[in-house]
C-alpha cells in the first residue's frame, strides 16, 4: 500500500512555493528534447500545460476525444476568472483570495495548495492579456472586475459572458504554435482507455481512434491527466454530454487514489429541468447574481397562481416578494457561495414557493439593476430628470453590454425575454471538487502520473467559489506543473525512448480489447442511455443536494444492481473497428456505474455536512451545514482493490496553521 505523502514544503506559507521551486531538480534544456510527455485532455488545464511544456522543449502528445481542443468543455465557462490584483482598490490580496477559498471550501482543502493558487493567480491575467484575450475594460482602459459568490471584493476578470471560450482560444493558439514547431503531436478524436505502468511508473496509455476504431499504443516518460470532472455521473448536469470520468477512473483502477468523490458542486443558477426528454442542462453564469435579485412569492397562493398561469411575476409588488437570500444573509445577499444559495433555493421550493410548472424554480430578476443603471447613465449624459422609458432603455443597454449573450441564450432556450420577465433558475450539478488525489507536485499515487485542473481534488475543498475553476486550470497548466514535473523527469534524462512492444503494453491493450468486445458482443435489450438515466435518477434523488444515511445505503445497493444489469442487458449496436458513438458512451457509463457506488460510499462514511456535501442528519437549527472538525477534518482518499464499491479508505489529515477554523457565516 502506497503511503499518502503530500510533499508539502516546510517553512512559512508565503514562502513555500518559492522555496520549493528553488529546491526541486531541473532538466537541462538540451535534455528536454529527449523526454516525452502525454497530455490527456486539452481544455484549459491540459492545453495550457501542453503548450508550456512544449515551449520548454519537451516532446508532447495531446489526446482529446473532440475533433479540436477548441471544443473542450472549458469553452462553456461564462462568468470569469479570479485573480488577486486588487485593481478595484477594495482590499484584495493574495491572503484574502487564499482565505476566501479556504472558507468557501468549508475548511476541507489544503492550505499550501490554496495559497499557491492565490499567489500565481495574478500571473495568469498577465499571460492571457499577452495572448490577446479580450478581457472587459473600464472607460479608462483598465481591466474591469466584477464580484462572485462568497467574497466581499471584486476580483473576477471576464470577457462578457464567454470568458472560458476566450481563455481557451488563448491556450489553443499557444498550442498551435508548438504544433507548428513540431513539439506537440495532436491526437484529436482519440480516447484514453487505459494507463500502462512499467516498473511501477506511468509509461504510456492505450488509446482508441474514435474515427477508425483502431487501438493504439503510446509511450512517454510521464502521463498527465487533465480530463475534467465527473458531473455527468448524474446524467443531467451543466457538463457537455461527452464529459466523462474515464481517464481518471482508469488510473484509479491502476493505483491512483480517488479523493472526496462526494464533494460535488450544485450550481444555483441553471435553467430548470423541463422534462425527461432533456439530455443536459444549461448554466446561467453566476456573474448574473451581481445584478440579479433572487426571489419567490411571499405567499403560497401567489406561487400557486404563477404555477397555474393565473399570475405573472411582474404582477407582484416588491412587498409581495421574498428576496430570501437578502433576508437570510444580509452581508452577502445574492452573492453567497454556491452551496448556500443552492440549498436556500431548494428549501423555498420544497416549502411550496417554487414558480414554474414543476414547482422547481425561483426567479432571478434584473428590474432593479435596469432602473439603477438607467438612472446612473442618464445622470452621466446630463439628464437629471429622465422619464421611466428613458431609464429603462439606458439600463437595458448597460445590462446588454455586461450580459447580452447570456440573456440571448436564455431567451432562445426558454422563449421568454429576460429584460422584461425575470429569469427562472434552479440548482443543477455543475463542478466536481473531488477527483484524483495528488500531492503538492500534482503527482498521483502512481509515480509519473500527474493530474491537473478539475480532474484532481486539490484546491477547492467541499465547495468551489465561482470563477475559481478557470483560475485553477490555468494555474496548474501555466505555472505549477511545468516546474514540478521537471523534478520527476530529471531522473529520466538517460532513459531513452520508452518501447511499446513490451508485455505491459500487451497486457493493457488486451484488456481494452476484451472490454470493447464484451460490449459490442453483448446481446442486450436496453440502450446505454437507458442505464445512464437510471443511474442519474438514483444519484440526484439520493446523492444530490441533500443526503441521508438511509438513502445512501439504498443508493449503493441500487447502483450495484444496476451495474450488474448493465453488463447483462446493455445493447451496443455496431462494431468496435469503426466509428461508434454508442460504444464510446458505453465505456464511459460503465465507469460512471462504478464511480457512482464509491460516490455514495464516500458520502455515507462522512458523518457531517460541509460545503456541497449536505447530510440531513447534520445541520444547524437554521438549516446550515454542520461540520465535525474533530472527526472529519481530512481528505478521504480511496484505494481501488479490484472490486468496485469495496475500496479502502486512506486519510490525509488537514492542518490549518494560518487560518482560524470556524463555522462559516455569510450573514
From TrEMBL:
Highest classification ranks of the organism: Bacteria, Pseudomonadati, Bacteroidota, Flavobacteriia, Flavobacteriales
Essential cofactor(s): FAD
Family: Belongs to the FAD-dependent oxidoreductase 2 family. FRD/SDH subfamily.
Active site location: 338
EC number: 1.3.5.1
Main location as per UniProt: membrane
PANTHER family: SUCCINATE DEHYDROGENASE 2 FLAVOPROTEIN SUBUNIT, SUCCINATE DEHYDROGENASE FLAVOPROTEIN SUBUNIT
Transmembrane segments: none
GO CC terms, sorted: plasma membrane
Protein name, UniProt field: succinate dehydrogenase
The entry's keywords: Cell membrane, Coiled coil, Electron transport, FAD, Flavoprotein, Membrane, Oxidoreductase, Transport
Organism field: Aequorivita aquimaris
Entries under SUPFAM superfamilies matching the protein: FAD/NAD(P)-binding domain (SSF51905), Succinate dehydrogenase/fumarate reductase flavoprotein C-terminal domain (SSF46977), Succinate dehydrogenase/fumarate reductase flavoprotein, catalytic domain (SSF56425)
Amino acid at each position: 500500500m502506497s503511503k499518502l505523502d503530500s510533499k508539502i514544503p516546510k517553512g512559512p506559507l508565503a514562502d513555500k512555493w518559492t522555496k520549493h521551486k528553488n529546491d526541486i531538480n531541473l532538466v537541462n534544456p538540451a535534455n528536454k528534447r529527449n523526454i516525452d510527455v502525454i497530455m490527456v485532455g486539452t481544455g484549459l488545464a491540459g492545453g495550457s500545460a501542453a503548450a508550456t511544456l512544449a515551449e520548454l522543449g519537451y516532446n508532447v502528445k495531446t489526446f482529446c476525444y473532440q475533433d479540436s481542443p477548441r471544443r473542450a468543455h472549458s469553452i462553456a465557462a461564462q462568468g470569469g476568472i479570479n485573480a488577486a490584483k486588487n485593481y478595484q482598490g477594495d482590499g484584495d490580496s493574495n491572503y484574502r483570495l487564499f482565505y476566501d477559498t479556504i472558507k468557501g471550501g468549508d475548511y476541507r482543502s489544503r492550505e499550501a495548495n490554496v495559497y499557491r493558487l492565490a499567489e500565481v493567480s495574478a500571473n495568469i491575467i498577465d499571460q492571457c492579456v499577452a495572448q490577446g484575450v479580450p478581457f472587459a475594460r473600464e472607460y479608462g482602459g483598465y481591466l474591469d472586475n466584477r464580484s462572485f459568490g462568497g467574497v466581499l471584493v471584486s476580483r473576477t476578470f471576464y470577457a462578457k459572458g464567454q470568458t472560458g471560450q476566450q481563455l481557451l482560444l488563448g491556450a489553443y493558439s499557444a498550442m498551435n504554435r508548438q504544433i507548428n514547431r513540431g513539439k506537440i503531436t495532436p491526437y484529436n478524436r482519440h480516447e484514453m482507455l487505459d494507463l500502462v505502468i512499467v516498473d511501477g511508473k506511468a509509461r504510456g496509455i492505450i488509446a482508441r481512434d474514435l474515427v477508425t476504431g483502431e487501438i493504439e499504443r503510446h509511450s512517454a516518460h510521464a502521463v498527465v491527466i487533465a480530463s475534467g470532472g465527473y458531473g455527468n455521473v448524474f446524467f443531467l448536469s451543466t457538463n457537455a454530454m461527452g464529459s466523462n470520468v474515464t481517464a481518471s477512473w482508469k488510473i484509479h483502477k491502476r493505483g491512483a487514489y480517488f479523493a472526496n468523490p462526494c464533494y460535488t458542486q450544485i450550481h444555483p443558477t441553471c435553467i430548470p429541468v423541463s422534462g425527461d426528454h432533456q439530455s443536459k442542462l444549461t448554466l446561467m453564469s453566476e456573474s448574473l447574481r451581481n445584478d440579479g435579485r433572487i426571489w419567490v412569492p411571499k405567499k403560497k397562493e401567489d406561487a400557486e397562481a404563477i404555477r397555474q398561469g393565473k399570475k405573472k411575476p411582474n404582477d407582484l409588488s416588491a412587498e409581495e416578494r421574498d428576496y430570501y437570500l437578502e433576508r437570510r444573509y444580509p452581508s452577502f445577499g445574492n452573492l453567497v457561495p454556491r452551496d448556500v444559495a443552492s440549498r436556500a433555493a431548494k428549501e423555498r421550493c420544497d416549502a411550496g414557493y417554487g414558480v414554474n410548472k414543476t414547482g422547481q424554480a425561483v426567479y432571478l430578476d434584473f428590474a432593479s439593476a435596469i432602473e439603477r443603471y438607467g438612472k446612473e447613465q442618464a445622470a452621466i449624459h446630463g439628464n437629471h430628470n429622465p422619464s421611466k422609458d428613458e431609464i429603462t432603455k439606458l439600463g437595458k443597454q448597460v445590462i446588454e453590454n455586461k450580459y447580452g449573450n447570456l440573456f440571448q441564450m436564455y431567451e432562445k432556450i426558454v422563449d421568454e425575454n429576460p429584460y422584461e420577465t425575470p429569469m427562472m433558475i434552479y440548482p443543477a450539478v455543475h463542478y466536481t471538487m473531488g477527483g484524483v488525489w495528488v500531492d503538492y507536485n500534482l503527482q498521483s499515487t502512481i509515480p509519473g502520473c500527474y493530474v491537473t485542473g478539475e480532474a484532481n481534488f486539490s484546491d477547492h475543498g467541499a465547495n468551489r467559489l465561482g470563477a475559481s475553476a478557470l483560475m485553477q486550470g490555468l494555474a496548474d497548466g501555466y505555472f505549477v506543473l511545468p516546474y514540478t514535473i521537471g523534478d520527476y523527469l530529471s531522473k529520466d534524462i538517460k532513459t531513452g525512448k520508452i518501447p511499446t512492444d513490451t508485455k505491459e503494453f500487451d497486457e493493457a491493450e488486451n484488456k481494452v480489447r476484451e472490454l470493447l468486445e464484451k460490449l459490442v458482443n453483448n446481446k442486450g435489450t436496453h440502450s446505454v442511455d437507458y442505464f445512464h438515466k437510471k443511474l442519474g435518477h438514483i444519484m440526484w434523488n439520493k446523492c444530490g443536494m441533500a443526503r441521508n444515511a438511509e438513502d445512501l445505503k439504498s443508493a449503493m445497493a441500487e447502483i450495484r444492481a444496476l451495474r450488474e444489469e448493465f453488463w447483462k442487458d446493455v445493447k451496443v449496436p455496431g462494431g468496435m473497428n469503426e466509428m461508434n458513438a454508442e460504444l464510446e458512451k458505453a465505456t464511459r457509463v460503465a465507469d460512471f456505474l462504478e464511480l457512482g457506488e464509491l460516490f455514495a460510499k464516500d458520502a455515507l462514511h462522512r458523518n457531517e455536512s460541509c460545503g456541497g456535501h449536505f447530510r440531513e442528519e447534520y445541520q444547524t437549527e437554521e438549516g446550515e451545514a454542520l461540520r465535525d472538525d474533530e472527526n472529519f477534518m481530512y481528505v478521504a482518499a480511496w484505494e481501488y482493490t479490484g472490486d468496485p464499491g469495496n475500496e479502502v479508505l486512506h486519510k490525509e489529515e488537514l492542518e490549518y496553521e494560518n487560518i482560524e477554523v470556524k463555522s462559516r457565516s455569510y450573514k
